[in-house]
Design goal:
This protein is of the alpha+beta class. It has one domain. The chain is built from three helices and five strands; from the N terminus they run αβββββαα. Strands 1-2-3-4-5 form a five-stranded antiparallel sheet, with helices on both faces.
C-alpha cells in the first residue's frame, strides 16, 4: 500500500489527472497512467494508444483508453498545466 506522500508525489509529477487517473509523460515519450484510488494499478502505453504493459483489469483498461483520446491534447498545452 502506498503512503499519502507517495500518492501526493504521483499527483505532483502528473501532466494531467482525469477522473482519478494520473497521466505522466515518461522520459522515453511513453505515457504512464496510475489509478489514484488504487495506485498499484498502472498502465504504460505509447502516445498513439498502443498498450505496452499493464496490471489493470479489462474494465479499467477500457475506461482509461476512453479518457486518453479525449484528453491527450491537454498534456501538450502548457496553458492547461497550471494548478488551480
Amino acid at each position: 500500500m502506498l503512503s499519502d506522500k507517495d500518492i501526493n508525489d504521483i499527483i505532483e509529477s502528473s501532466a494531467m489527472i482525469v477522473c482519478g487517473y494520473a497521466f505522466m509523460q515518461m522520459e522515453d515519450g511513453n505515457i504512464r497512467i496510475v489509478g489514484l484510488k488504487n495506485p498499484n494499478h498502472a498502465l504504460v502505453m505509447r502516445s498513439n494508444g498502443e498498450i505496452l504493459e499493464t496490471n489493470m483489469d479489462d474494465v479499467e483498461i477500457e475506461i482509461v483508453m476512453e479518457y486518453w483520446p479525449r484528453n491527450q491534447k491537454y498534456m501538450k498545452e502548457d496553458k492547461y498545466a497550471e494548478i488551480l
